[in-house]
Amino acid sequence: MLASALPRLPTFPAASAIPALMPPQPTPSRSAAATAAAPRRAPVADYALLLLLATLWAASYSFIRIGVATIPPVTLIAARTLIAGGLLALAMRLRGVALPADRRTWAMFAFQALMNSVAPFTLIAWAEQDVEAGLATILNATVPIFAFLLTWLGSRTTAARHEAVNGRKLLGVVLGLSGITLVIGVDALGGIGRQTGGQMAIVAASACYAVAAIFGQRFKGLDPMAPAAGSMLCGAAALVPLSLAVDRPWTLNPSAASLAALAGLAVFSTALAFIIYFRLLRSLGSIGITSQSYLRVPIGVLLGAVFLGESLPPTAYAGLVLVVAGVAAMTLPARRA
What are phi and psi of 192, to 5 degrees? Predict the structure, then answer.
C-alpha cells in the first residue's frame, strides 16, 4: 500500500493543508484567531526541551559505538526502529490517540522514515565502525547548514515560504560550526581524507536529517506522537526484512553491553527523542530544531570529561560560547516592530 502511494509524494499538500486531514475543529473566534496569528516568543520550556533532545542524541553516538561491536549496523538500526515504533504506538493507544488511517499520511510517514531514520541511522552506524567519534560529530553537525541552504533555496523557488531565512540565522550557522571545531579541537579535523567513504556517509546522513526537518513541518496538525510512531514503524517495515535477509540475526551472539546500548538507543535516543523533536518543530521551525546538532557536541565532550575522565582542549570553553551564540541566533524570534 505504501509503495503505491510513494510516487505521489511531490503532490503532497503544504504544511498549511495538513489540518484538513484531521477531524474538523470549531471555528475560532476573531480574538482567538488574532492571538494565534501573532508570532509568539519561544518559552523557556522549548529551550529546555532542545537541550534535552541534544543530550539524548549526543548519547546515541556512544550507544551506537557500543552496539555495533557485536550487532551488525542494519540489524542494530532495524531493532532500534522496531522497538521505538512499538513503544510509541503502545503509548498512543494508552492515551486513546489513534494513528491516521489514510494512505496519503502513511506515505508521508514512509518518506519521513527514509529521511529521518532508515537512511541516516544506517549510514551513521556503518560509518562509526571506522570514523573517529570527534570527526563524526563535526561532520554530523553540518545538519543546520543543509537545513539553512535547503530552506533558502525553497524560499526562492516556491511561493509558499514556511520559514523566514535571514542573515541572523546564517550567522548562527557559522558561529555554531566554528564553535564545534574549537570544542572538539582543530586536530580532530586531521582525519579528513582518511576513511573517506565513512565520512561521506555521515555528510549524506546530515543532508537527510535536514530534508526530514523541513518535510516534518507538514505534520504540524498531528499529535507529535503520530509522526514519531508512524515514521518509526515504517522504518522498521523497511529494515527488519533487510536484517533478516542480510544478517540472519538468529545466528548472532550479541554481548550484554551491546543489548543494553540497543535498549538505551531505542527507548531514550529514539522514542523519547522523536516525541520531543516533533513537538519542537511546531515552535522552533526546521532551522531551529537542527541547532541541537551544535549543542550535541559540547554536551558529548562534557559527558566524556565528567564520566570518562577525558580532557577538554584549551579552546573548548571559547567554542562553547560560540555554540550557544549560534543556537540563540538560529532559534530566538526576531523582534516585532
Answer: -65, 130
CA–CA distance from 276 to each of 50, 54, 83, 224 (Å)? 8, 10, 17, 8
Can you tell me the distance from the alpha carbon of 296 to that of 305, in angstroms, rounded to the nearest whole number?
14
Whole domain around residue 221: which residue ranges?
59-166+190-290
Give residue-wise pLDDT tens across range 279-288: 888 887 776 7
Which residue is associated with the grid cell 533558502? 152
Alpha-carbon torsion, ordered 181, 187, 193, 195, to 10 deg? -90
Is residue 137 assigned to a domain? yes
Q: How far is CA 247 from CA 173, 236, 242, 250, in A?
A: 39, 15, 8, 9
Residues facing 192 on adjacent strands: 194
Tell me how many domains the chain contains: 1
**Backbone dihedral region for residue 257 (phi beyond 0: left; psi -120 to 50: alpha; all else: beta):** alpha
Enumerate residues 6+ apart whose C-beta is below 8 A from 331.
42, 46, 47, 50, 172, 284, 288, 291
Q: Which three cell numbers stand for residue 33?
A: 484567531
Exposed e or buried b per residue across 71-83, where buried means at least 16 C-beta atoms within 10 angstroms of its C-beta: bbbbbbbbbbbbb
**117 part of a folded domain:** yes
Half-sphere exposure of 217 (CA within 13 A, CB side): 23
What is the Cα–Cα distance from 145 to 213, expressed in whole angstroms?
Answer: 12
Instruction: Please report whether residue 320 resides in a domain.
Output: no
- Look at residue 102 and tell me if it is in a domain: yes
Which residue, among 135, 129, 131, 140, has the nearest Cα to 185 in the 3D structure? 135
Give CA separation, 228 vs 34, 73, 270, in Å.
30, 21, 9
**Could you report the per-residue pLDDT of 94-139, keeping only the tens digit for each?**
999 899 999 999 999 999 999 998 999 889 888 877 776 656 666 7
Nearest to 280 by CA among 208, 207, 272: 272
Contact 112, 227 (CB under 8 A): yes
